[in-house]
């Protein structure tokens, strides 16, 4: 998923910083995923470059629900982030719309009523 090791190194460095830095680090995950590090310490953007698809045989997500990240390993989370970035790239850049959810139904459960959820459930 991260052949350069940049992502893991960045999170390792974040552990030595105050909490607010680590919190902001999570919001900068997109930036981290779009950079690659060179051995000489320089980095370059890889936004337009595609890495090979990660090994899917290690990550089995079929039949599992995403209720909390605590139920997933680091490899599984990295794979989900890679997959979502790949799907976004295909839709926005290439105009590909894959029939992944064709014939499927989505159910939404709301714990508390709010204006937005009330309008969506009453229509």
UniProtKB/TrEMBL annotation:
GO terms for cellular component: mitochondrion. It holds the Pfam family OTCace_N. InterPro entries: Asp/Orn_carbamoyltranf_P-bd (IPR006132), Asp/Orn_carbamoylTrfase (IPR006130), Asp/Orn_carbamoylTrfase_sf (IPR036901). PROSITE patterns: CARBAMOYLTRANSFERASE. Keywords: Transferase. One of its GO terms (biological process) is citrulline biosynthetic process. Its EC number is 2.1.3.3. GO terms for molecular function: amino acid binding; ornithine carbamoyltransferase activity. Residues 64-123 form the Aspartate/ornithine carbamoyltransferase carbamoyl-P binding domain. Belongs to the aspartate/ornithine carbamoyltransferase superfamily. OTCase family. PANTHER family: ORNITHINE CARBAMOYLTRANSFERASE, MITOCHONDRIAL, ORNITHINE TRANSCARBAMYLASE, MITOCHONDRIAL. This is ornithine carbamoyltransferase. It comes from Monodon monoceros (Narwhal).
């Amino acid at each position: 998923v991260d052949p350069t090791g940049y992502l893991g190194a960045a999170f390792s460095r974040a552990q030595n910083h105050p909490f607010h830095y680590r919190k902001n680090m999570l919001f900068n995950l997109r930036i981290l995923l779009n950079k690659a590090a060179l051995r000489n310490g320089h980095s370059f953007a890889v936004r337009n470059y595609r890495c090979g698809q990660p090994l899917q045989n290690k990550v089995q997500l079929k039949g599992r629900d995403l209720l909390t990240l605590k139920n997933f390993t680091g490899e599984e989370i990295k794979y989900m982030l890679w997959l979502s970035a790949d799907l976004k790239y295909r839709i926005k850049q290439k105009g590909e719309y894959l029939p992944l959810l064709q014939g499927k139904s989505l159910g939404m459960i709301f714990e508390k009523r709010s204006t937005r959820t009330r309008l969506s459930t009453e229509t």
